[in-house]
């Protein structure tokens, strides 16, 4: 029988100073840790992340879920939603864990969270990274950078996307990003061929820049993988992969 782990609430300070609402499952001082980074329009409390936390806990991991600045219950505003800002948030979470634990740290991220964990893994020593529908090059986000959208972004200082505001700073950082340090740890990338937000070809190009990365094609899958049985199967496969990498 798997005992249900204690979940505690903590506040972690981002490297940019924002207070991040965080949940910790289990004991990060005694178990390997998986940090979950949500996507642009999501939060730490999304059903997929709760299911991932449950599956990882059952496999002996402690799990850390947090809201990026301006999302969920964390401090900040919509103007804080930028690539570099979210990397600073994640690095703050990793600092918190490493100050308290010597256990291996693993990263999981979806969509924009996938881009963030990959970039953070090039800056902070982690054991392995798994992503789902991760953004490779921000310039490949076609729905955000179409000429009419860009014009509105420049005129108004923000755009509406999926019910959320994206500041002009998001565009400026995305388009000015140069080469970023690639992680050298094992990587697992899953991506749908019918992803309407992050093109499948972009994911293939990303995988090619990560030596030894495992690339998993999700035939016919959209960005959010709305087929629930298939979604749960993918999450379990990722949890099993983390377990194998922790051995």
The percentage helix is 25-40%
Overall pLDDT score: 94
The unreliable regions are: none
Using the coordinates above, name the CATH class: Alpha Beta
**What's the CATH H-level superfamily name?**
Alpha/Beta hydrolase fold, catalytic domain
* Order of helix and strand elements from N to C terminus: EEEHEHEHEHHEEHEHEH
| CATH level-two architecture | 3-Layer(aba) Sandwich
Query: Would you give the CATH topology?
Result: Rossmann fold
What general outline do the C-alpha atoms trace? globular
Structural class: alpha/beta
The domain count comes to 1
Q: What oligomeric state best describes the polypeptide chains here?
A: single chain
Cα radius of gyration in angstroms: 17 Å
Largest sheet: 8 strands, mixed
Task: Estimate what percentage of residues fall within beta strands.
Answer: 15-25%
Notes on the protein architecture:
By secondary structure, the protein is an alpha/beta fold. Helix 1 (47-58) runs parallel beside helix 8 (228-246). The protein is globular and about 50 Å long. It has a single domain (7-138, 182-246), classed as Alpha/Beta hydrolase fold, catalytic domain (Rossmann fold), CATH 3.40.50. Strand 9 (187-192), helix 7 (200-208) and strand 10 form a beta-alpha-beta unit. The strands form two sheets. It has an eight-stranded mixed beta sheet, sandwiched between helices. Strands 7-8 form a two-stranded antiparallel sheet. It contains eight helices and ten strands. It starts with 6 loop residues before the first strand and ends with a helix.
